[in-house]
Amino acid sequence: MDDSDSEGVVPEIEGCSYEYFYKYHLERNLPCIIKGVGRNWKATKLWANDNKPNFKYLRSEYAESVVTVYNCKEKYFNSHPTSEMKFEDYLNYWQKYSKAEDKSGMELLYLKDWHMKNENKNDDFYEVPLYFSSDWLNEYLVAVGKDDYRFVYMGPLGSWTPLHKDVMNTFSWSVNICGYKKWLLLHPGEEKKLMDKSGKLPLSVDNLPEDIRHCYIIQQPGDAIFVPSGWYHQVWNLKDTISINHNWINVTSISRMENSLGIGLQDVQKEISHLSKENDFQAQCEAILRCDVGMNHEDFFEFIRFITLRRLRKYNTQQQETELENQMLKRDIEACQESLMQIFNHLNETQMDEAMNMCLQMSTIIFNKTR
Asked: Could you tell me which residues are beta bridge partners of residue 252?
């Protein structure tokens, strides 16, 4: 029996089937902890010793990389100020910080959003778990050579990430290589109770009002946490911690991504409504939307077009080998068709023609599925 509907309870699961995870967590958009996911990863064996960072190994392999660090002791709008440094210098800082008895005069630096896999494509330091393998977003971004949403995080005891929800209403997953994290997750909509009169959220939630539906999680080494779409969360490192994290989209969350773009566009239109009589007003709004969230409706069409053509090609060549792969493929095709129909009014004439052609091909497949 699944208990993820219980107030404040996040279930721990181990060895469950993909269909179980799909039914109880992806479709229902509910969090969970999956035990032991990273237990046998290369990163787990080489990046850490006795649940502590292996500074010697990390320095020998990645010293020259340039990384972005966040100063957790300072505020910059709704985040922390950032700077760049060589990874070797960050490791030197980290060791010095961890050994210092008096840290009051030191910066508290958290290395985040490192595209390590993109930089080291042949370094198989982890494997994407089956549960998270249907990842449209990174499949597309890696194939077209754009920045991905596959990250490495590293930080000392006390480093933390402010209250936020993930970009474009994506899912996220995170696996600890070493260390422990404390997570606060708010049920969707509960964040509104924390907003001030101007609609702004606090950077940190230290004393949570009792009427807010929430979950606390302590994440252990090797465990994965699944963070659903639209769930605001805040994260603290309880020890020196290294984690691998993905933002991702699949058949169960693509509609939320499209909705977030629609809401984002409406916000931009409202913000620059004084320019609404300009001939290129809509183009200006889409350009601002791309700057704000990294994608606009033109980009979204190219993304869905890419996934659709891949899935049609796979279906037509019968590349799927198992019943699970067959089910996943047909689910993807149905979701691609729905996504194209949802954004149809945002497309130009050429894109509309192509979208209609793809939808007709997918309709034939869906019809055959239901006969």
From this structure: none
